[in-house]
Amino acid sequence: MVEDEVRLAETVSRGLRAEGFVVDTIHDGAEGLAEAQLRDYDVIVLDIMLPSMNGYDVCRELRKAGVWVPILMLTAKDGEYDEADALDLGADDYLTKPFSFVVLVARLRALVRRGAPKRPSVLTVGDLTLDPATRMVGRGGTEIALTPREFALLHFLMRHPGEVLSKTAIVQSVWDLNYDGDENVVEVYVGYLRRKIDQPFGTTTIQTMRGAGYRLLGDGV
Fold this sequence. Notes:
By secondary structure, the protein is an alpha+beta fold. Helices cover 40% and strands 17% of the residues. It has a 4-stranded antiparallel β-sheet, with helices on one face. The protein has a 3-stranded parallel β-sheet with strand order 1-2-3, with helices on both faces. A hairpin with a 4-residue loop joins strand 5 (128-131) and strand 6. It is elongated and about 60 Å long. The termini are far apart.
């Protein structure tokens, strides 16, 4: 458990030990990252706000290093964007503070039963590649830097190559479940993606289907 609120960490750890768990408690992000890479844990409880390295960065670095132990992140109250970001970065589950200890135990047992997931496969469409594990995107050997939302949008498109995807479907899959803004935000982010994955390479990968949505072409044109 990586949690910098010492009293909370100690209370939860005592309760988990009473439930039969063996618990290591760490109060620092960088130290938690190091321990998680050295030891073979069944599950990690990871707070977001931590000294030296926040929970987002710890989760990201663990996934980059190929550590696939299930991660349950603790997010701020009413932090739906925290929750979305946590899942985008590779967390398996989350709880919002203050949380029920009974629910925490149930979630942890479910994650332990599920075990570490297999490493995600690298997606390839033409010469465009996307690695969900390292969050690396490239075209023809050239690395492309994307924001988390751009990455999530491209990831969704690359999971459905050749399919026409409506703006509604894209918003429901890529944006937060509570998002109630204009669906034209999809058009804006498609434009951002095109400027990064297409224009520098003289290709057209994302095709606009008037009145229907967008389609990712196999090889670009």
